[in-house]
Amino acid sequence: MKLDYQLKKVEKNTKARLGEFQYLGKTYETPMFMPVGTQATVKTLSPEEIKEMHAGIILANTYHLWLRPGMDLVEKAGGLHKFMNYDGPILTDSGGYQVFSLAKNKKKDITEEGVHFKSHIDGQNLFLTPELSIQIQNKLDSDIAMSFDECPPARADYEYLKASVERTIRWAKRGKEVHKNPNQMLFGIVQGGAHKDLREYSAKETVKLDFDGYSVGGVANDHESKEDMYKAIDYSIPYLPENKLRYLMGIGEPIDILEGVIRGIDIFDCVSPTRLARHGHALTKYGKINLKNAKYKEEFTPICDHCDCYACQNYTKAYVRHLITANETFGARLLSIHNIRFLIRMTEQIREAIKNNTILEYKEEFIKNYYGDKNE
Amino acid sequence: MKLDYQLKKVEKNTKARLGEFQYLGKTYETPMFMPVGTQATVKTLSPEEIKEMHAGIILANTYHLWLRPGMDLVEKAGGLHKFMNYDGPILTDSGGYQVFSLAKNKKKDITEEGVHFKSHIDGQNLFLTPELSIQIQNKLDSDIAMSFDECPPARADYEYLKASVERTIRWAKRGKEVHKNPNQMLFGIVQGGAHKDLREYSAKETVKLDFDGYSVGGVANDHESKEDMYKAIDYSIPYLPENKLRYLMGIGEPIDILEGVIRGIDIFDCVSPTRLARHGHALTKYGKINLKNAKYKEEFTPICDHCDCYACQNYTKAYVRHLITANETFGARLLSIHNIRFLIRMTEQIREAIKNNTILEYKEEFIKNYYGDKNE
Asked: CB A85 to CB B315 under 8 A?
């Protein structure tokens, strides 16, 4: 059964939305942060740990799973849920972003038919098309599949972006035509950089194709400014239907989650909590801290006060710092648990604020603490 | 409170012993396999996972913890149990083995006073003495501390070994004199290579010092033959008191655990289950298998039939193989759980066989399966 999104409320002073969907008898609320399990595993963590932090949807990566272990193997295993032993909802991206960012030497040849590129693992020639991306996702049997889109460079010129948006719409249509998995939602992706007219065009044409949900794409590029990201959302949202999920791809910086929510986004994903963890960084109320810093050597207090996560309930900064310094993966595991839970707890607070029509106050308070002067 | 060992039974046909001790209200049985948590963490695992596999004592490493994070820091944290959040019994080794095997360039200068060597982390000059080893272990506040011994090369000549044994006895005496932790057992270590007279001398002199338990040392050296290891045990055991724990240091190969048990050893430790896990190897009833092998690519069955571990209950060989191939640490974590549980389950079966006076039959059956012709 496809998961069915219901919009419950729009906050009084902003476009922030409270929504929910049911999945295998359980209700999940949005706004939601989705942990990323690129290779059918959220790095260092077990499915039980992911559920203990009240995660909802998790992400898996079509490009990576296509290369390794392969779509047919996952299909034989009974699909991604069974393969990785996760019974919560799973979203797969289309592979487009990885093709454009990971392909060996970043050399690729974009044709109307699809994208030729070389594997980042062994350099073999690969060809990914909109149809193949959907076929892979059908076999992976995720709950939400994404259309295959082109992710053009952030600062590509207007003419290029226009042609790219048009191609992405044609690709979305082709993908939808071959989509066969009745239990899987298929999302369309709005592109168009920070151009008002391109975003409007892309949104309207994509919505015409009638997808189960929509993503605002092309915003997770490092070279793009935050202003451009917020513009991309503002220019896309007005044309998206109220009763469908809206997904801001690849975004997990707290300020951006807040800005996204306020602009009408429902779901977010980002590798940052686990990546930061592997580098010894922790998210706290008072900003990001680097546990490798010598000042935490003898701090026998939790990573973050009042945090309810397993790491904060059982370990000290001094211990986690020791693990990170000694290259022990249990350190990355504890920080992954903490960082993901931090973002999930933030979305829980965001939902509460939407219920109370206080999202702007929540945002101000959060930002004051998190990005304040005292922070590292 | 010191843990108190009670010998419950000696098997009818061998010297295999069934014993037990109490710790914080819980009864632990021997023979026992002790997982190794070198740097105050059993690599990749949480304390809860270690307890779920019915582990008893775990090991931590004095040399490593002395260097990082330092004995004073662990003391300030409230001792090792609190620092690493493990409320089961902990044994610390003396650091001797690491000084002799890990010291930078393996260059060291052994004097009567102690050993000068360079840190394997940053090359700084260090000096470890029998007294300092005990003082570190006192501060770590483990439940069992080990005397600081010299670990001479396996094939050192008789005269060298004799002098070394004598020095190790003097070191044991010096360590015992400074041992101050009333809740901590202190074990002596019997050395002497594969020489009957040296083992007898070492055992008798060490027992005269009246330790809380005894270890048969100098057997975990790769260059030593199995025959020499078994001789070392056979030549040491007759002189050790019945009512004290006997520990075979650094041994975890199944055949050696069996041979040790039959010769009267109670406790064993080895890094092999977690090290093998990181290299993609799993221990099974039918021997060690390498999950990187292509033949497991589509094996949608547990690592090991009838295994009750978390990994075998929830995942397939195909998934674990995927994780290992994709360098995902959750793979090493699942295999660590499985491999440690495999050895712990083996000791559970060994205890059952001792109760039934069938240890020789158990050994024969185990070896036929584990080391049989069909195996990889």
From this structure: yes
